[in-house]
Amino acid sequence: MAEQKRDYYEVLGVDKNADDATIKKAYRQLAKKYHPDMNPGDKEAEAKFKEASEAYAVLSDADKKRKYDQFGHAAFDGSQGAGFDFNDMDFTSMFGDIFGDIFGGAFGGFGSRSSSGPARGKSLLAGVHISFEESIFGCEKELELTLKDECPTCKGTGAKPGTSKSTCTKCNGKGKVVYTQQSLFGMVQNVQTCPDCHGSGQIIKEKCRDCKGTGYIPKKQRIKINIPAGIDDGQRVRVPGKGEPSPNGGPRGDLLVDVVVSQNPRYQREGLNLFTTAPLSFAQAALGGEIRLNTVYGDVIYEVKPGTQTDTRIRLKGKGVPSLRSSNVVGDQYVTFVVQVPTGLNEEAKELIRQFDEATDNSLAEAAADTSEDGKSGSGHGKKKKKMFGKK
Fold it and tell me: Measuring CA to CA, which residue among 288, 277, 283 is closest to residue 312?
């Protein structure tokens, strides 16, 4: 059974209308209370610290907060798109200013990336428009983007041809420097990215003239994007390895593609289900029979029951949206019938309807009689009032 997460606003103890300053203040207090360095060996405190950090990671980011307010936890568990990987968060860079304030610049390594491994590159954002039908069946799109490619002159080293990088003397090639300092809570260690080599562990004394020492050259590229069947408007597709290159030899970041789905006036989507309406003539509603209904998978024949009323809703099983999680799961299509009242009748048609009414409930005659009775004044209404309310 999946773990039930608490509401992020509840975790931080703030109102949903709280501003950035209030959210940050609330998180600072929780981080100070539950930080593992302050609670060594306390698994419960560690879990609460992780929970608060996850909540702050979402609520402090305008885009993630908007999605969370709209979809809740489903915005990041994959049911509303590619999701958000909290296990891959770089807490050191994300909360560096907060932990610097709380622990005097110290963040004792919890949740941070390994000091021995280079950081991955930043992710890139892009957008793509698709039709409603493409969102149901999936499709392939091609985007033209400017990505950083390996510099052909220095082969990605960033150093001038004929020269090479040298080991950074400040961090001795580790890419990080460690400071130990006294705080209110005792001696704590502050692990930071080396300011001289920026985490690469190497120094370029003579930079490549073409790439200015970065090792990369901007270049336009065409990237094919596979849009999965069942994706919804506002969801995101992740393309691994097509983001920014790492500044210190790590893996490239990812390309995140936000999908915009065009509306279809015929269908309304709610989760995996589709909703639509279909007209019924008076004769079809009264007598029943076969009619043709539209679905995204093609037309189907449906047997209408005699006496079907307007606003009757039926279900077409398996004619909805496929699930992103399982290709074997498909939603349904719900069709609401709307009985059409004929207009522009000629005299012959009107007479036939009068005859039909006489043969059924004779509603026209009863309505005329009621109108005539209501039109009487004096004793008629007086008798009804006495019968209803009694004599005064």
Answer: 277
Please list, residue by residue across 231-256, b when 16 or more beta carbons sit within 10 angstroms of its beta carbon and e when fewer do. bbebbbbebeebbbbbbbbbebbbbb
Residue for token pair 């939603």: 331
pLDDT for residue 272 is more than 70: yes
b or e along 123-161 (b: 16 or more beta carbons within 10 Å of the residue's beta carbon)?
Answer: ebebebebebebbbeebebebeeebbeebeebebbbbbe
Residue ranges with strand state E in the chain: 124-130, 139-150, 166-167, 176-183, 186-193, 202-203, 216-227, 236-239, 255-261, 268-270, 273-280, 289-293, 300-304, 313-316, 333-339
Reported residue count of the chain is 392
In one letter, which amino acid is 101? D
Report in angstroms the alpha-carbon separations of 251 from 82, 120, 122, 274: 20, 5, 10, 41
**DSSP labels, 256-281:** EEEEEEPP-TT-EEETTEEEEEEEE-
Tokens representing residue 210 in the block: 């073409």
Number of other residues whose CB lies within 10 A of the CB of residue 330: 20
- The one-letter amino acid at 210: D
Q: d(Cα 158, Cα 211) in Å, to the nearest integer?
A: 7
Band (374; pLDDT cuts 50, 70, 90) = low
* Span 33-64, pLDDT tens digits: 888 767 777 888 888 888 888 889 899 888 88
Considering just the CA atoms, what is the radius of gyration of the chain in Å? 34
pLDDT digits (tens, 9 = 90+) for 190-225: 788 888 887 778 888 889 999 988 888 999 999 999
How many angstroms separate the CA atoms of 3 and 309, rounded? Answer: 45
- How far is Cα 332 from Cα 315, in angstroms, rounded to an integer? 7
| CA–CA gap between residue 205 and residue 52 (Å, rounded) | 43
Q: What is the DSSP string of 152-205?
A: TTTTTS-BPTT---EE-TTTTTSSEEEEEEEETTEEEEEEEE-TTTTTSSEE-S
pLDDT tens sequence across 112-170: 444 445 677 888 999 999 999 999 999 999 999 999 888 999 888 888 998 888 889 88
Instruction: Give the integer Cα–Cα distance in Å for 362 and 354.
Output: 9
* Closest listed residue to residue 198, CA positions, set 184, 211, 182, 214: 214
292, two tokens: 């043709």
CB 237 within 8 Å of CB 260: no
